[in-house]
Design a protein that fits this description.
The complex is a heterodimer of chains A (about 220) and B (about 525). With about 220 residues, chain A is an alpha/beta fold. Chain A has helices at about 15-25, 40-50, 65-75, 90-100, 110-125, 135-140, 150-160, 165-170, 175-190, 195-205, and strands at about 5-10, 30-35, 55, 80-85, 105, 130. In chain A, strands 2-1-3-4-5-6 form a six-stranded parallel β-sheet, sandwiched between helices. In chain A, helix 5 (about 110-125) links the parallel strand 5 (about 105) and strand 6. In chain A, helix 7 (about 150-160) packs across helix 9 (about 175-190) and helix 8 packs across helix 9. The relative contact order of chain A is 0.09. The model of chain A is unreliable at about 210-215 (pLDDT under 50). Chain B is an alpha+beta fold and about 525 residues long. Chain B contains 15 helices and ten strands. In chain B, the strands form two sheets. In chain B, strands 2-1-5-4-3 form a five-stranded antiparallel β-sheet, sandwiched between helices. In chain B, strands 6-7-8-10-9 form a five-stranded mixed β-sheet, covered by helices on one side. In chain B, helix 1 (about 10-30) packs antiparallel against helix 4 and helix 4 (about 90-100) runs parallel beside helix 7. The radius of gyration of chain B is 39 Å and the shape is elongated. Chain B starts with 10 loop residues before the first helix and ends in a 5-residue tail after the last strand. Classes of the chains: A alpha/beta (about 220), B alpha+beta (about 525). At the A-B interface, helix 1, helix 6 and helix 9 of A face helix 10, helix 11, helix 12, strand 6 and strand 7 of B.
Chain lengths: ~220, ~525
């Protein structure tokens, strides 16, 4: 039988550490072995007590939590790192993912979710878990390409196999304007020809029956 | 009276030099046992004290020469080249040059050298003269002259630095005067200090003096090679997609700060350039080009030199006003953005953390309490309420921190924001963006994004909407942004302040936009902000 999972709490707000500590202490599978209020304290503490999991706030007085996570990951490959943050937005989740953290949890989540994230981090420190991760990753790839309404029309007609002249006729624009739209479309999609453009558009989710359509 | 010492080297420096050199001389004296030198050292100390006292040039020169004479006399009396007093020759050389000029250093050294030569000529002890005036003595004299040169150079540098200070103060005064003026203008006449109004009047005036059909005023976007369209003249589908990239007409005109006449229409697609002429004029203020005015005419030969001069005559006088308005907008936007960042930090580090910790404490309390206890439901309700507040604060922080990045446009920023909010709240977002490569002004982009944030927050917070439709068309300087939701709609009473409508309206007015808030059929709210008229 292994002992409880050892946890270190890192947050510059003492009240947050207290609140989390009480919740961890209620659960006999965890043991809080230390607290730190800054990145430098955290690094020293973790070197000394070697916990299985660290709960890390992304905003620390002396360094960013993500940089701290990177440094901790480099020094301790098997440490479970849970990023805890008040900030919202996909870039926060992606930043945590890139830093080598094991889990991401917002401060608005209830305590039992923090414990669940800590449990995951202890078991699989080198994987990454976050709520709604699949959607975040999908947005990260599609958000990079934004088409204008006209370009979207041109793309749809291209997908139907229409020639430039036919597209121009259908959209009531000149062939040269159509060509300019197609050129910009290829550029945005990173394609050199129509076939490539189609493949990339499908990959980026631009050619599915779109839900992102203004009525 | 003009102070003798440059203020950056007060008497302290002069005294320090003397104390150090005197200590050296006394040290050597004690080492060699030439105790007679101590008498001269004492005399030099007294003279040194006098010399370090600030006074006019004559005072300094006189003292330095007296010092040098005493050094010379002392050297003669205490063993010529072996004299421990010889290094002290540097003191009058340094202080004289620092206080007066290179002459002030050379004069005392010359006095000492003359004294030494005279003493050697008059010497009747029978010692050969070349043993009296050795190369060692000459070395110290040369060294003292070198020190005098260096000190004179230091003096020149210090004086220059001092004299440039009054210029800085004058520039600051001038800046203060301008800013005060700006403040008065900005408070009283909101319309006049507006880039679009100024730019439009440039185009209007150009049309009065030449046969211009269409035109645009474009200015550089800070931190990028792009140009943003401040004003536009004439209907049609002209594409003012100019960039400030090297080699292009806009870049050439800005680089040479001279107007340029081109065949054909610059704003048409490359293979659709009909006959006609384009005139590109630089916008210059303070010797720097910050944009171009492009005017086009369908008439061949529409821009002969005298017409170009007339157009320039309309454009150039307004360039300074336009740039002032642009800078004023930029400063206002910087201040607003900085204040939002500060507010976000304050909320993040203060109330947000405290509420989050209360929520964690309530999590513990909710688990501790027996499920059938009378207070159990209440504790759970309070916990959920606090949790909602933390979520709400988190979204507010997200709004405060969302900005239009320098390399993305308004549409991209709006898209990023509403997608993230949709993901965090479970609202389905339907997005339609129509945005070309041209940008709006930075302040316009920022205010439009904030209006969208407010409208989306209303839909989320008050209306409990399930779907959100966001449409954004950017056609600089025009823009059209609509946010619609299928929520409960506006409450008739108190809606004006409870939904941040006043703030949205103010934001719109700040960038010359018009805000319309109306019910959406069958239910929900539509918020639409338009700036100018976008072309479809």
């Amino acid at each position: 039988v292994t002992g409880p999972t050892t946890v270190v709490l890192v947050d510059d707000h003492e009240l947050i550490r207290q609140g989390l500590r009480r919740n961890f202490e209620r659960d006999s599978t965890f043991e809080v072995v230390g607290e730190a209020g800054s990145a430098s304290e955290a690094a020293a503490l973790i070197d000394a007590v070697r916990p299985q999991v660290v709960i890390l706030d992304v905003r620390l007085p002396d360094a960013s939590g993500l940089d701290t996570a990177k440094a901790l990951r480099a020094a301790h490959p098997d440490l479970g790192i849970v990023i805890l943050t008040m900030y919202a937005g996909d870039d926060q989740v992606l930043g945590a993912l890139e830093s080598g953290a094991s889990a991401f949890i917002p401060k608005s989540a209830p305590a039992h979710e923090v414990l669940a994230a800590a449990r995951h981090a202890a078991e699989a420190p080198r994987t990454f878990s976050a709520a709604d991760l699949a959607a975040v990753l999908r947005r990260a790839t599609t958000a990079k390409v934004t088409l204008t309404a006209r370009e979207r029309e041109v793309l749809d007609l291209l997908a139907e196999g229409l020639a430039v002249a036919a597209i121009a006729k259908q959209l009531y624009i000149s062939p040269s304007t159509t060509k300019a739209h197609i050129a910009r479309l290829y550029e945005k999609l990173g394609a050199g020809n129509r076939a490539q453009a189609m493949v990339h558009a499908v990959k980026l989710g631009l050619l599915r029956p779109s839900t992102e359509e203004y009525p | 009276m003009r102070p003798t010492f440059p203020s950056l080297t007060g008497p302290f420096v002069h005294r320090l030099i003397r104390v150090v050199l005197l200590a050296l001389c006394v040290g050597v004296t004690l080492g060699t046992g030439e105790h007679e030198a101590l008498v001269y050292a004492a005399g030099l100390a007294v003279l040194g004290l006098l010399s370090s006292h600030p006074g006019n040039r004559l005072w300094v020169l006189g003292n330095a020469s007296a010092e040098a004479l005493l050094v010379g006399f002392g050297v003669v009396q205490t063993g010529w080249a072996e004299s421990p007093l010889l290094p002290y020759l540097i003191a009058p050389a340094f202080t004289g040059a620092l206080a007066v000029s290179v002459l002030g250093g050379v004069l005392p050294v010359g006095v000492a050298a003359a004294a030494l030569v005279a003493a050697a000529l008059l010497d009747d002890s029978g010692t050969p003269r070349d043993q009296l005036l050795t190369s060692d003595t000459a070395q110290w004299v040369v060294l003292a002259l070198l020190v005098a040169t260096v000190a004179a150079w230091v003096r020149a540098v210090l004086l220059e630095a001092e004299q440039s200070q009054p210029d800085v103060a004058a520039a600051q005064l001038e800046a203060l005067r301008l800013i005060t003026e700006l403040r008065a203008v900005a408070r009283q006449l909101p319309g006049t200090l507006d880039p679009a109004t100024t730019a439009e009047s440039m185009l209007e005036r150009s049309r009065e003096v030449s046969r211009v059909d269409s035109g645009a005023v474009l200015v550089t976007v800070v931190g990028s090679h792009k140009l943003s369209v401040v004003a536009r003249l004439g209907a049609g589908r002209s594409r003012w997609e100019l960039s400030a990239d090297e080699g292009g007409p806009a870049a050439l005109v800005m680089e040479n700060q001279r107007p340029m006449v081109l065949e054909g229409h610059l704003s048409a697609a490359p293979d659709e350039r009909r006959s006609g002429m384009t005139l590109v004029c630089p916008l210059v203020s303070g010797g720097r080009a910050f944009g171009v005015v492009v005017v086009e005419s369908h008439v061949a030969g529409a821009f002969p030199p005298e017409t170009v001069d007339r157009v320039l005559g309309c454009v150039s006088p307004l360039a300074l006003q336009l740039q002032t308005a642009l800078v004023f907008d930029e400063v206002r936007e910087l201040a607003t953005a900085e204040e939002r960042r500060r507010l976000s930090r304050e909320i993040h580090d203060g109330i947000a953390q405290e509420l989050a910790s209360v929520a964690y404490a309530l999590d513990t309390a909710a688990e501790d309490i027996e499920p059938d206890h009378v207070a159990s439901n209440q504790v759970n309700d309070v916990r959920d309420a606090v949790r909602r507040l933390v979520t709400e604060l988190r979204m507010s922080l997200f709004d405060l921190r969302s900005e239009v990045a320098p390399d993305e446009g308004l549409g991209a920023a709006i898209g990023r924001h509403v997608r993230a909010v949709g993901a965090a709240t479970g609202m389905t977002v339907h997005l339609s963006l129509n945005e070309g490569p041209m940008r709006l002004g930075a302040e316009t982009e920022a205010e439009l994004l904030r209006i969208v944030q407010e409208a989306v927050a209303n839909a989320r917070r008050h209306a409990q909407a399930r779907n959100l439709w966001v449409a954004c068309t950017v056609d600089p300087p025009a823009a059209d942004v609509t946010v619609e939701d299928d929520g409960r709609g506006l409450t008739p009473r108190g809606s004006a302040d409870s939904h941040g409508l006043v703030i949205m309206r103010e934001r719109a007015a700040r960038v010359r936009g018009e805000l319309v808030v109306e019910p959406r059929s069958p239910h929900g709210t539509r918020v639409r902000v338009t700036i100018g008229k976008v072309r479809t």
